[in-house]
Design brief:
The protein has about 750 residues and is mainly alpha-helical. It has two domains: about 1-455 and about 505-700, Sodium/glucose cotransporter, CATH 1.20.1730; about 710-745. It is built from 28 helices and six strands. Strand 1 and strand 2 form a beta hairpin. Helix 12 (about 250-285) packs across helix 23.
Length: about 750
């Protein structure tokens, strides 16, 4: 019977699940570190014009991660099907209906957006000014986001915090991808690859590989627990008390909750400020308003969504934002790809298959620049410059950091079931791969264009885009942000513009300018440039939405409601959350408007801070029953504290780098310390309370729910559970009677 199998195979289910996760992670680690270790050797082999080592890291490894998640989902669902006599889980009818309805809405929305872009292209063709087209792009996108926020407004706590826990996996995957692909990914990824070449691929491997950890180690168990926030899970998992020297008893769950909230704030606020900052750059560039005004204008779309509808509104807005940002990112790459005729590709629209010849031309052009005297030395684009330990350390920190960022993990609280959470992670990675598979091609096309058509040209014929982006400080010529040929001549200390050829060292392009400027570098229509800016705006706002909710929800739910006033009504709690949303948004906008010099560097720190502060507590809390509150608190303080100290010390305190490891990868020091402190202190102190151990067991056990079984099957399970309970009571009673009789007999 179904009930008997369910009752008997709990441990078998956990054991098989453990083995599967270990196998998947071994394969994951082999791909993530084995192939990059062989890059110099495999780069000597060519496939479709690509050096194999570079292509493995840029395209093969990220795609393999996606394949690995498909395999994991299939096998894990097979294990779960065995718990129900092979009966597959069936989604609730309401979820299927919602899925179909959302599909119709977003197909219509996508068609409407494409028509809008074509209409703007027509306006450009008939002579409408570029600035007017830019204004229309910004107004349309912000207006759509605000409209979705108004339509999704809610006063229910479940809707506000976790979107009612009914978001279908595919749409939650799109929302997560938009949440993840911040302005840093959209604007900065291709620019980083342009500047660093092969070494920049550490970001692609790290950020895609992190989703394997999310799916196998963290997300399904957080969804099974059913919390609103990451700090809430940590507080519930790490319960216990400790008596202080003065006799006062401290509830440790509140301490762990408070520390988890501090970690959340440390890795989220600067990230949020950077998104608001990039929003101001884009709006000011394409509308022509003052930067400070643009920063606060960009908040309108964010606040309409998160203020009125919380996670529900943010989710459906992020789906719309994903549509815009992915169209905006791929269209210019496809346009450039179809112009390639490099001996390997001719008019190939599949960009991630069409830049092999471009990479070879970059290598040849690097040698030509040196021979022509346009560069004294060129660092090879396709070869590693960093030490392998630096590449691997950064990759590791980005992977673990991805699996620890609260604003990413909270997205998986919104799915209908554990199975949906796992599938949602796979969809997330799939949608993210669309951008990350395109970024290397984007960077290569731009690199060759600059090397061929900009470097070596007289100052008098420098392209206009250099001056356009010089106005906002994103390009420099001879060390100065120039806005005209005259200024370029003065910057390079030349008497005339005709005798001096621009050298490689003379031109500096900010990594943040590359994606926005590439359509103009490649000579594409201004409508395409405006489209890219709309995509960058969508990327920044979508991440700002998620971060703003993560921060405000943690402060209102975990600090105010749980630690200050646990008797507050739902209405009061939601009001506090909305007030905090506005306050945090204004603080971040004020910070961004001051143009802080270190904000972009601090964003990269978020991954190390999240990894060292959250991952040991989350991982051990799920996978090691013995982990207790004292150990978790020790791990949070020591791991996160060491990472923060290394970041601040090497950045501002004059500390030397430990072993030459960049502070971006600071978690390689804090993470093992956090794990060690958690384990050692847990072993030296009493085990967790029985109710916590029962909670851990419930996280690990397969639980059939109303979505999986019919009413008759659920009733059958209930009857079997009651029968087993009666049997256990009877066994205990018989044992007690036998013991009493034996004792009486012995006394006689």
């Amino acid at each position: 019977m179904l009930g008997e199998k369910y009752l008997q195979l709990d441990m078998s289910y956990w054991g098989r699940s453990q083995r599967l996760v270990i196998q998947i992670l071994c394969i994951w680690a082999l791909a993530a570190y084995g192939l990059p270790a062989l890059v110099l050797e495999t780069n000597k082999m060519l496939i479709m014009g690509f050096p194999l080592g570079y292509y493995n890291c840029a395209q093969v490894i990220p795609m393999f991660f996606g394949f690995l998640l498909l395999v994991f989902n299939g096998v894990q669902e097979g294990i779960e099907a065995d718990q129900t006599d092979g009966k597959p889980a069936v989604e609730a009818a309401s979820s299927s209906a919602l899925n179909a309805m959302l599909a119709k809405v977003y197909v219509a929305y996508t068609g409407g957006f494409i028509f809008f872009v074509l209409f703007l292209g027509f306006l450009e063709a008939v002579g409408v000014p570029d600035q007017a087209i830019g204004i229309l792009f910004v107004i349309f996108t912000l207006g759509m986001y605000a409209a979705i926020g108004i339509a999704s407004r809610t006063s229910k706590s479940d809707d506000f915090y976790v979107a009612g826990r009914n978001v279908p996996p595919i749409f939650n995957g799109m929302a997560t991808a938009a949440d993840w692909m911040s302005g840093a990914s959209f604007v900065g990824m291709a620019g980083t690859l342009y500047a660093l070449g092969y070494d920049g691929l550490a970001y692609i491997i790290g950020w895609t590989g992190g989703y394997v950890l999310v799916s196998t180690v963290i997300a399904p168990y957080l969804r099974r627990f059913g919390s609103f926030t990451v700090p809430e899970f940590i507080a519930s998992r790490y319960q216990g008390t400790m008596q202080l020297p003065g006799g006062k008893v401290v509830e440790l769950s509140g301490v762990s909750r408070f520390l988890a909230t501090i970690v959340l704030l440390s890795c989220s606020f600067t990230y949020l400020t950077a998104q608001v900052y990039s929003t101001g750059v884009i709006v000011s560039r394409f509308i022509g308003i003052q930067f400070e005004v643009a920063v606060f204008s960009g908040l309108i779309g964010v606040l309409f969504c998160s203020l009125l509808g919380g996670m529900r509104a943010v989710t459906y807005t992020q789906v719309a934002q994903y549509v815009i940002l992915i169209i905006a990112y791929t269209v210019p790459a496809i346009c450039m790809s179809t112009t390639q005729d490099d001996g390997f590709n001719m008019n190939n629209p599949v960009d991630f298959l069409a830049y092999g010849g471009t990479l070879q031309q970059i290598t040849l052009r690097e040698k030509e620049l040196v021979l022509l005297g346009l560069a004294s030395k060129v660092t090879p684009y396709l070869e590693p410059k960093w030490r392998r330990v630096d590449f691997f350390a950064l990759t590791f920190c980005l992977m673990v950091g991805t699996a620890s960022l609260p604003h990413v993990l909270m997205r998986y609280f919104t799915t209908p079931s554990v199975r949906s959470a796992r599938r949602s992670v796979t969809w997330s990675l799939g949608f993210i791969l669309v951008l990350y598979m395109t970024a290397p091609a984007y960077a290569a096309f731009a690199k060759l264009e600059v090397y061929t058509n900009v470097i070596g040209t007289p100052l008098s014929v420098l392209p206009q885009w250099i001056f356009t982006y010089g106005k906002i400080g994103l390009t420099t010529v001879c060390g100065k942000a120039v806005t005209s040929v005259t200024e370029a001549i003065e910057a390079c200390a030349q008497a005339t513009s005709g005798d001096y050829l621009l050298k490689l060292k003379d031109l500096k392009i900010s990594t943040d300018a590359m994606v926005i400027a590439t359509p103009e570098i490649a000579g594409l229509p201004y409508t395409i440039a405006g489209l890219v800016s709309a995509g960058g705006l969508a990327a920044s706002l979508s991440t700002a939405d998620g971060l703003l909710l993560a921060i405000s929800n943690a402060l209102s739910h975990d600090i105010y409601f749980r630690l200050i006033d646990n008797k507050a009504s739902i209405q009061k709690n939601l009001m506090i959350s909305r007030v905090l949303l506005v306050v945090i948004a204004l603080i971040s906008a004020g910070t961004a408007a001051s143009r802080p010099a270190d904000i972009l560097s601090m964003v990269a720190w978020a991954f190390s801070l999240a990894a060292s502060g959250n991952f040991p507590a989350l991982c051990l809390g799920i996978w090691w029953r013995r982990a207790n509150a004292q150990g978790a608190i020790a791990g949070q303080i020591s791991g996160w504290g060491l990472t923060l100290a290394y970041l601040l010390g090497t950045r501002y305190g004059g500390w030397a780098l430990w072993g030459g490891i960049s502070n971006v990868a600071a978690a390689v020091f804090g993470l093992p310390v956090g794990f060690a402190a958690n384990i050692i202190v847990s072993l030296l102190t009493p085990p967790p309370p029985d109710n916590v151990l029962a909670m851990v067991d419930s996280l690990r056990d397969f639980k059939v729910t109303g979505e999986d079984l019919t009413a008759e099957e659920l009733e059958d399970i209930k009857e079997k559970e009651e029968a087993l309970a009666r049997t256990q009571v009877l066994q205990v009673s018989n044992t007690a009677e036998a013991t009493a009789a034996a004792t009486a007999e012995a006394s006689i």
